Amino acid sequence: MLLTNNLTVNEQGHLAIGGVDTVELAREYGTPLYVMDEGRIRLACRQFKQSIDNYYGGRGIAHYASKAFCCKEMCRIIADEGLGLDVVSIGELYTAMSVNFPPERIGFHGNNKTEEELRYALECSLGHIIVDNLTELETLDRIAGEMGKNARIMFRVKPGIEAHTHEFIMTGQIDSKFGLALENGEAMGAVKRALAMKNVTLGGLHCHIGSQIFDIDPFVMAADVMLHFIADIKEQTGYEVEELNLGGGFGIKYTEQENPSAYDLYMQKVSDKVKNTCAALKLKQPYIVIEPGRSIAGPAGITLYQVGSVKKIPGVRTYVSIDGGMTDNPRYALYQSRYEAVCANKADAPRDQTVTIAGKCCESGDLIGKDMPLQQVEPGDILAVLATGAYNYSMASHYNRIPNPAVVMVKDGTSRLIIKRETPEDLIRCDL
Ligand SMILES: *Cc1c(COP(=O)(O)O)cnc(C)c1O
Question: How far does the centroid of ligand 1 lie from the alpha carbon of residue 212, in Å?
Answer without folding.
Answer: 9
